[in-house]
C-alpha cells in the first residue's frame, strides 16, 4: 500500500458505454482504477490477470502503478491504479490486432485513443469546490493522525520488547528468586497459562540438567524434617529451593528462563 498517496477526489466517469474510476491524489496526479479499465475493455478474467502481471513486471509501467487505499463496500481496501501519464503506454502495449473478438478490438482502440483525455477532462472541467478542498484537507489530517498513532503504538511496543529483553538478561543473585517469578508470571500472563510455563521450564531443566527434581525435592524435605522443620515449612518447599541450592542447576535454569522470556515476551 502506498501510504503517502492520499486520495482527494474520486469519480466514476462514463466512457464508451462503461464506467471508469479515476482518483485525484495529494501528489497532484490522477490515477485510473486498473480493474475498471479492464472491465471496460471487456477482458476476460485470465486476460485481466495477465494485465496485472504485465503492470507489475514491466520496468516502465511499474513506476506508474500504485495501490491506493479507497473506500469500498468492504471498507477501505488497496485498489490497483495507474497514473494517467502511463495509461496510454499501457494501452498501447495491448495489441488490438491479435484480439479475436471484434467488439473488444474496437474498444481497445477507442481506449488507446481517448481514455486518458476523457479522464483528465473529468477533473479539469470544473474546479474543486471549497467543500471538496476542505474534505481533502481533513482526509490528509486523518491519515497523518492515523500514521502518527500507528508509529506511536509501534514505538511503545518496541520499548516494551526492549525492556523485556533487558529484564530477562540483567539479573543478580540478590534478587534471583524474585526475578525468576517475575519472568514466569509475565510469560504466563502473555500466554494465559501460568502453570504451563512453569512446567515447561522445569521440564527443560530436567532434560538439560539431567536431574530428577522430584527426588531432589524429597531429599530436601527429608533433610528439613531431620532438622526439625515444621509441617508448613515442609509443605512450602518447592523446586526453586532445590534449584537455588545447587549452583549448576541454578545456572542452567537461569539460562532457560532467559530463553523463555525472549521467546514468548520480547
So how many helices? 11
Contiguous uncertain segments of 5+ residues:
none
Note the overall shape: elongated
Terminal-residue CA separation = 28 Å
Which sequence of strands runs across the widest sheet?
Answer: 1-2-3-5-4
The beta-strand count equals 5
Provide the domain count. Answer: 2
Structural class, judged by helices and strands? alpha+beta
**Overall average pLDDT:** 84
What oligomeric state best describes the polypeptide chains here? Answer: single chain
- Please describe the biggest sheet, giving its number of strands, its sense, and whether it closes into a barrel: 5 strands, antiparallel
Provide the helix percentage: 55-70%
Order of helices and strands: EEEHHEEHHHHHHHHH
Radius of gyration: 33 Å
Strand percentage lies at: 5-15%
Would you mind describing this structure in some detail?
The chain has 266 residues and is α+β, with helices and mostly antiparallel strands. The protein has two domains: 7-126, no CATH class; 171-264, no CATH class. The protein has helices at residues 34-41, 45-57, 87-92, 102-124, 130-169, 176-191, 194-209, 213-226, 231-236, 239-245, 247-264, and strands spanning 7-15, 18-25, 30-33, 65-72, 75-83. A five-stranded antiparallel sheet has the order 1-2-3-5-4. Helix 6 runs parallel beside helix 11 (247-264) and helix 7 crosses helix 11. The longest helix has 40 residues, at 130-169.
Amino acid at each position: 500500500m502506498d501510504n503517502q498517496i492520499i486520495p482527494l477526489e474520486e469519480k466514476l466517469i462514463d466512457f464508451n458505454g462503461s464506467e471508469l474510476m479515476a482518483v485525484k491524489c495529494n501528489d497532484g496526479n490522477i490515477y485510473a482504477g486498473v480493474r475498471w479499465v479492464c472491465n471496460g475493455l471487456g477482458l476476460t478474467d485470465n486476460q485481466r490477470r495477465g494485465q496485472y502481471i504485465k503492470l507489475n513486471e514491466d520496468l516502465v509501467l511499474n513506476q506508474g502503478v500504485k495501490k491506493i487505499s479507497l473506500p469500498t463496500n468492504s471498507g477501505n481496501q488497496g485498489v490497483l491504479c495507474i497514473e494517467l501519464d502511463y495509461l496510454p503506454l499501457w494501452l498501447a502495449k495491448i495489441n488490438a490486432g491479435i484480439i479475436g473478438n471484434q467488439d473488444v478490438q474496437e474498444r481497445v482502440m477507442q481506449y488507446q485513443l481517448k481514455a486518458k483525455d476523457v479522464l483528465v477532462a473529468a477533473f479539469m472541467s470544473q474546479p474543486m469546490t471549497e467543500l471538496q478542498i476542505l474534505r481533502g484537507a481533513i482526509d490528509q489530517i486523518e491519515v497523518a493522525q492515523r500514521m502518527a498513532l500507528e508509529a506511536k503504538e509501534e514505538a511503545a511496543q518496541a520499548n516494551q520488547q526492549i525492556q523485556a529483553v533487558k529484564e530477562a538478561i540483567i539479573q543478580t543473585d540478590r534478587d534471583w528468586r524474585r526475578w525468576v517469578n517475575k519472568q514466569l508470571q509475565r510469560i504466563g500472563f502473555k500466554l494465559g497459562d501460568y502453570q504451563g510455563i512453569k512446567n515447561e521450564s522445569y521440564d527443560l531443566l530436567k532434560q538439560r540438567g539431567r536431574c530428577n527434581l522430584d527426588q531432589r525435592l524429597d531429599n530436601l524435605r527429608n533433610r528439613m524434617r531431620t532438622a526439625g522443620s515444621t509441617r508448613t515449612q515442609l509443605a512450602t518447599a518447592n523446586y526453586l529451593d532445590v534449584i537455588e541450592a545447587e549452583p549448576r542447576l541454578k545456572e542452567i535454569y537461569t539460562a532457560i528462563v532467559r530463553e523463555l522470556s525472549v521467546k514468548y515476551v520480547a
